[in-house]
Amino acid sequence: MGCGSATPTVRHAPTAQVVDLRDKLYLIDCGEGTQLQMRRYRVRFNRLNNVFISHLHGDHCFGLPGLVSTLGMLGRTGELVIHGPDGTEAFLSPVLSRFCKELPYKISFNTVDTGKHELVMEDRSVSVYSIPLHHRIPTCGYLFREKPREPHIIREMIDFYNVPLREIAEIKRGMDFITADGVTVPASRLTRPADPPRSYAFCSDTAYSPAIIPIIEGVDCLYHEATFLEADLPRARQTFHSTARQAAEIAARAKVGSLILGHYSARYEDLNGFLSEASPIFANTHISDEGETFEIQLKIKRGRFN
Catalytic positions, please? Predict the structure, then answer.
Protein backbone atom coordinates (compact mmCIF):
# COMPACT_ATOMS: atom_id res chain seq x y z
CA MET A 1 0.00 0.00 0.00
CA GLY A 2 2.92 2.35 0.67
CA CYS A 3 6.70 2.21 0.62
CA GLY A 4 7.76 5.78 1.38
CA SER A 5 9.27 7.16 4.57
CA ALA A 6 8.12 9.97 6.87
CA THR A 7 8.43 12.99 4.57
CA PRO A 8 5.38 13.04 2.24
CA THR A 9 5.94 12.91 -1.52
CA VAL A 10 3.69 12.45 -4.53
CA ARG A 11 5.74 9.41 -5.53
CA HIS A 12 5.11 7.19 -2.54
CA ALA A 13 2.55 6.67 0.23
CA PRO A 14 3.63 5.96 3.82
CA THR A 15 4.16 2.41 5.02
CA ALA A 16 1.36 -0.15 4.83
CA GLN A 17 1.32 -3.74 3.61
CA VAL A 18 -1.32 -6.44 3.31
CA VAL A 19 -0.55 -10.11 3.81
CA ASP A 20 -3.16 -12.20 2.00
CA LEU A 21 -3.27 -15.76 3.33
CA ARG A 22 -6.04 -18.35 2.91
CA ASP A 23 -8.75 -15.76 2.23
CA LYS A 24 -7.77 -13.66 5.25
CA LEU A 25 -6.00 -10.32 5.24
CA TYR A 26 -3.47 -9.06 7.79
CA LEU A 27 -2.52 -5.38 7.65
CA ILE A 28 1.02 -4.43 8.67
CA ASP A 29 1.39 -0.76 9.60
CA CYS A 30 -1.18 1.84 8.64
CA GLY A 31 0.34 5.02 7.32
CA GLU A 32 -1.83 8.01 6.49
CA GLY A 33 -4.35 7.29 3.73
CA THR A 34 -4.10 3.51 3.96
CA GLN A 35 -7.87 3.11 3.60
CA LEU A 36 -7.68 5.11 0.35
CA GLN A 37 -4.92 2.85 -0.93
CA MET A 38 -7.02 -0.18 -0.06
CA ARG A 39 -9.86 1.30 -2.10
CA ARG A 40 -7.50 2.11 -4.96
CA TYR A 41 -6.20 -1.44 -5.17
CA ARG A 42 -9.57 -3.06 -4.44
CA VAL A 43 -8.50 -4.74 -1.23
CA ARG A 44 -11.54 -6.25 0.46
CA PHE A 45 -12.05 -4.58 3.83
CA ASN A 46 -14.28 -7.36 5.14
CA ARG A 47 -11.42 -9.88 5.05
CA LEU A 48 -9.32 -7.82 7.47
CA ASN A 49 -9.42 -8.81 11.15
CA ASN A 50 -5.93 -7.99 12.45
CA VAL A 51 -3.73 -4.90 12.19
CA PHE A 52 -0.07 -4.97 13.26
CA ILE A 53 1.63 -1.66 14.10
CA SER A 54 5.42 -1.67 14.26
CA HIS A 55 5.89 1.63 16.13
CA LEU A 56 4.23 4.93 16.87
CA HIS A 57 5.80 7.19 14.29
CA GLY A 58 3.11 8.90 12.21
CA ASP A 59 4.04 7.39 8.87
CA HIS A 60 3.25 3.97 10.34
CA CYS A 61 0.07 4.67 12.32
CA PHE A 62 -1.65 7.93 11.27
CA GLY A 63 -3.92 5.95 8.96
CA LEU A 64 -5.59 4.10 11.82
CA PRO A 65 -8.29 6.71 12.55
CA GLY A 66 -9.34 6.84 8.91
CA LEU A 67 -9.33 3.07 8.55
CA VAL A 68 -11.37 2.53 11.73
CA SER A 69 -13.92 5.14 10.63
CA THR A 70 -14.16 3.73 7.10
CA LEU A 71 -14.79 0.22 8.41
CA GLY A 72 -17.63 1.59 10.50
CA MET A 73 -19.20 3.38 7.55
CA LEU A 74 -19.03 0.15 5.56
CA GLY A 75 -21.15 -1.55 8.21
CA ARG A 76 -18.53 -3.81 9.69
CA THR A 77 -19.76 -5.96 12.60
CA GLY A 78 -16.84 -8.32 13.28
CA GLU A 79 -14.13 -7.54 15.83
CA LEU A 80 -10.95 -5.78 14.74
CA VAL A 81 -7.79 -6.49 16.75
CA ILE A 82 -4.99 -3.92 16.69
CA HIS A 83 -1.59 -5.24 17.79
CA GLY A 84 1.05 -2.66 18.60
CA PRO A 85 3.56 -1.31 21.10
CA ASP A 86 2.62 0.22 24.42
CA GLY A 87 0.81 3.49 23.73
CA THR A 88 -1.15 2.32 20.67
CA GLU A 89 -4.46 2.28 22.54
CA ALA A 90 -3.70 5.62 24.21
CA PHE A 91 -3.01 7.14 20.78
CA LEU A 92 -6.24 5.90 19.19
CA SER A 93 -8.71 6.06 22.08
CA PRO A 94 -9.28 9.86 22.03
CA VAL A 95 -10.04 9.67 18.30
CA LEU A 96 -12.49 6.83 18.88
CA SER A 97 -14.23 8.64 21.72
CA ARG A 98 -14.71 11.82 19.68
CA PHE A 99 -15.27 10.64 16.11
CA CYS A 100 -16.26 6.98 16.37
CA LYS A 101 -18.62 6.84 19.35
CA GLU A 102 -21.12 4.46 17.78
CA LEU A 103 -19.03 2.02 15.81
CA PRO A 104 -21.02 -1.08 14.83
CA TYR A 105 -18.07 -3.31 15.66
CA LYS A 106 -15.65 -3.93 18.53
CA ILE A 107 -12.00 -2.86 18.59
CA SER A 108 -9.57 -4.74 20.80
CA PHE A 109 -5.97 -3.84 21.54
CA ASN A 110 -3.11 -6.25 22.08
CA THR A 111 0.01 -4.63 23.52
CA VAL A 112 3.21 -6.03 21.99
CA ASP A 113 6.47 -6.09 23.95
CA THR A 114 8.82 -4.69 21.31
CA GLY A 115 11.86 -5.89 23.26
CA LYS A 116 10.97 -9.57 23.00
CA HIS A 117 10.66 -12.16 20.26
CA GLU A 118 7.42 -13.87 21.15
CA LEU A 119 4.08 -15.03 19.81
CA VAL A 120 1.76 -12.09 19.14
CA MET A 121 -1.22 -13.75 17.46
CA GLU A 122 -2.24 -17.04 15.93
CA ASP A 123 -5.24 -18.47 14.16
CA ARG A 124 -5.84 -21.57 12.09
CA SER A 125 -3.72 -20.24 9.24
CA VAL A 126 -0.72 -18.47 10.71
CA SER A 127 1.39 -17.72 13.78
CA VAL A 128 2.72 -14.16 14.07
CA TYR A 129 5.78 -13.33 16.18
CA SER A 130 7.41 -10.04 17.14
CA ILE A 131 10.93 -9.15 15.96
CA PRO A 132 12.75 -6.65 18.24
CA LEU A 133 14.23 -3.85 16.13
CA HIS A 134 16.67 -1.03 16.86
CA HIS A 135 15.07 2.36 16.24
CA ARG A 136 14.67 5.70 18.03
CA ILE A 137 11.51 4.58 19.81
CA PRO A 138 10.23 1.10 20.77
CA THR A 139 9.79 -0.75 17.48
CA CYS A 140 9.26 -4.30 16.34
CA GLY A 141 8.86 -6.17 13.11
CA TYR A 142 6.57 -9.13 12.57
CA LEU A 143 7.31 -12.68 11.48
CA PHE A 144 4.49 -14.58 9.79
CA ARG A 145 4.80 -18.37 9.80
CA GLU A 146 2.09 -20.20 7.90
CA LYS A 147 0.72 -23.28 9.60
CA PRO A 148 1.02 -26.59 7.71
CA ARG A 149 -1.84 -27.36 5.39
CA GLU A 150 -3.59 -30.70 5.16
CA PRO A 151 -2.43 -33.08 2.39
CA HIS A 152 -4.06 -32.85 -1.02
CA ILE A 153 -6.59 -35.51 -1.93
CA ILE A 154 -5.82 -37.44 -5.13
CA ARG A 155 -9.19 -37.38 -6.81
CA GLU A 156 -8.48 -40.33 -9.12
CA MET A 157 -7.65 -42.57 -6.16
CA ILE A 158 -10.71 -41.41 -4.23
CA ASP A 159 -12.89 -42.33 -7.20
CA PHE A 160 -11.09 -45.65 -7.75
CA TYR A 161 -11.72 -46.82 -4.19
CA ASN A 162 -15.20 -45.26 -4.00
CA VAL A 163 -14.31 -43.30 -0.88
CA PRO A 164 -17.40 -41.64 0.65
CA LEU A 165 -17.29 -37.88 1.04
CA ARG A 166 -17.65 -38.21 4.83
CA GLU A 167 -14.33 -40.09 5.01
CA ILE A 168 -12.20 -37.49 3.27
CA ALA A 169 -11.59 -35.25 6.29
CA GLU A 170 -10.23 -38.19 8.29
CA ILE A 171 -8.04 -39.32 5.41
CA LYS A 172 -6.52 -35.84 5.23
CA ARG A 173 -5.67 -36.19 8.92
CA GLY A 174 -3.82 -39.43 8.20
CA MET A 175 -6.46 -42.11 8.80
CA ASP A 176 -6.35 -45.11 6.47
CA PHE A 177 -9.46 -46.05 4.51
CA ILE A 178 -11.08 -49.49 4.75
CA THR A 179 -13.05 -50.58 1.72
CA ALA A 180 -16.35 -52.49 1.81
CA ASP A 181 -14.31 -55.65 1.17
CA GLY A 182 -12.17 -55.02 4.24
CA VAL A 183 -9.07 -53.91 2.33
CA THR A 184 -7.04 -51.22 4.11
CA VAL A 185 -5.87 -48.41 1.81
CA PRO A 186 -3.13 -46.27 3.38
CA ALA A 187 -3.87 -42.56 3.55
CA SER A 188 -0.55 -41.95 1.82
CA ARG A 189 -1.94 -43.67 -1.30
CA LEU A 190 -4.94 -41.38 -1.36
CA THR A 191 -3.13 -38.10 -0.77
CA ARG A 192 -0.08 -36.16 -1.83
CA PRO A 193 1.90 -33.89 0.48
CA ALA A 194 0.69 -30.37 1.06
CA ASP A 195 2.69 -27.42 -0.19
CA PRO A 196 5.38 -26.47 2.34
CA PRO A 197 4.30 -23.69 4.75
CA ARG A 198 5.62 -20.25 3.90
CA SER A 199 7.20 -17.55 6.04
CA TYR A 200 7.48 -13.78 5.75
CA ALA A 201 9.43 -11.34 7.91
CA PHE A 202 8.57 -7.64 8.00
CA CYS A 203 11.39 -5.51 9.40
CA SER A 204 10.16 -1.96 9.73
CA ASP A 205 12.26 1.06 10.69
CA THR A 206 15.54 -0.13 12.15
CA ALA A 207 19.23 0.57 12.25
CA TYR A 208 21.50 -2.23 11.03
CA SER A 209 20.90 -4.97 13.59
CA PRO A 210 22.52 -8.41 13.21
CA ALA A 211 20.64 -9.44 16.37
CA ILE A 212 17.59 -10.19 14.22
CA ILE A 213 19.40 -12.76 12.08
CA PRO A 214 18.66 -15.82 14.29
CA ILE A 215 14.97 -14.84 14.33
CA ILE A 216 14.54 -14.42 10.58
CA GLU A 217 17.02 -17.07 9.45
CA GLY A 218 15.77 -19.06 6.48
CA VAL A 219 12.47 -17.23 5.96
CA ASP A 220 11.08 -17.43 2.44
CA CYS A 221 10.79 -13.67 2.07
CA LEU A 222 12.20 -10.73 4.03
CA TYR A 223 11.02 -7.14 3.80
CA HIS A 224 13.71 -4.88 5.24
CA GLU A 225 13.64 -1.12 5.31
CA ALA A 226 16.22 0.63 3.12
CA THR A 227 15.65 4.29 3.80
CA PHE A 228 19.05 5.39 2.50
CA LEU A 229 21.82 4.49 0.11
CA GLU A 230 25.34 3.88 1.37
CA ALA A 231 26.44 7.38 0.36
CA ASP A 232 24.14 8.66 3.11
CA LEU A 233 25.29 6.18 5.76
CA PRO A 234 26.00 8.92 8.35
CA ARG A 235 22.38 10.09 8.03
CA ALA A 236 21.16 6.50 8.33
CA ARG A 237 23.10 6.05 11.56
CA GLN A 238 21.88 9.38 12.93
CA THR A 239 18.22 8.49 12.33
CA PHE A 240 18.49 4.76 13.21
CA HIS A 241 17.68 3.60 9.70
CA SER A 242 19.35 1.20 7.27
CA THR A 243 20.90 1.43 3.84
CA ALA A 244 20.11 -0.87 0.93
CA ARG A 245 23.53 -2.47 1.34
CA GLN A 246 22.91 -3.17 5.02
CA ALA A 247 19.52 -4.73 4.27
CA ALA A 248 21.17 -7.01 1.71
CA GLU A 249 23.85 -8.00 4.21
CA ILE A 250 21.16 -9.01 6.70
CA ALA A 251 19.39 -11.04 4.00
CA ALA A 252 22.59 -12.79 2.97
CA ARG A 253 23.65 -13.62 6.51
CA ALA A 254 20.16 -14.86 7.38
CA LYS A 255 20.05 -17.03 4.24
CA VAL A 256 16.53 -15.87 3.34
CA GLY A 257 14.83 -16.81 0.09
CA SER A 258 14.20 -13.31 -1.23
CA LEU A 259 14.50 -9.68 -0.13
CA ILE A 260 12.12 -6.76 -0.67
CA LEU A 261 13.32 -3.22 -0.03
CA GLY A 262 11.18 -0.23 0.92
CA HIS A 263 10.68 2.87 3.14
CA TYR A 264 12.67 5.07 0.77
CA SER A 265 13.76 8.54 1.83
CA ALA A 266 12.10 11.38 -0.06
CA ARG A 267 15.51 12.51 -1.28
CA TYR A 268 15.67 9.72 -3.86
CA GLU A 269 13.64 10.03 -7.06
CA ASP A 270 15.28 7.09 -8.84
CA LEU A 271 15.00 3.76 -7.03
CA ASN A 272 17.40 1.88 -9.30
CA GLY A 273 20.26 2.82 -7.01
CA PHE A 274 18.75 0.68 -4.25
CA LEU A 275 18.74 -2.38 -6.47
CA SER A 276 22.23 -1.66 -7.77
CA GLU A 277 23.56 -1.39 -4.23
CA ALA A 278 21.85 -4.47 -2.79
CA SER A 279 21.93 -6.99 -5.65
CA PRO A 280 25.69 -7.66 -5.68
CA ILE A 281 25.41 -8.72 -2.03
CA PHE A 282 22.07 -10.54 -2.25
CA ALA A 283 21.01 -11.42 -5.78
CA ASN A 284 17.32 -12.14 -5.19
CA THR A 285 16.50 -8.56 -4.23
CA HIS A 286 13.37 -6.65 -5.28
CA ILE A 287 12.48 -2.99 -4.88
CA SER A 288 8.88 -2.39 -3.87
CA ASP A 289 6.42 0.08 -5.31
CA GLU A 290 2.81 0.92 -4.51
CA GLY A 291 0.31 -1.55 -5.90
CA GLU A 292 2.80 -4.37 -6.34
CA THR A 293 2.15 -7.91 -5.15
CA PHE A 294 4.72 -10.54 -4.26
CA GLU A 295 3.54 -14.14 -4.24
CA ILE A 296 5.70 -16.16 -1.88
CA GLN A 297 6.36 -19.66 -3.20
CA LEU A 298 9.65 -21.50 -3.66
CA LYS A 299 10.44 -18.47 -5.83
CA ILE A 300 8.84 -15.08 -5.41
CA LYS A 301 6.36 -14.10 -8.12
CA ARG A 302 5.95 -10.40 -8.71
CA GLY A 303 2.74 -8.77 -9.92
CA ARG A 304 0.26 -5.92 -9.53
CA PHE A 305 -3.05 -5.64 -7.75
CA ASN A 306 -5.93 -6.48 -10.06
Answer: 59
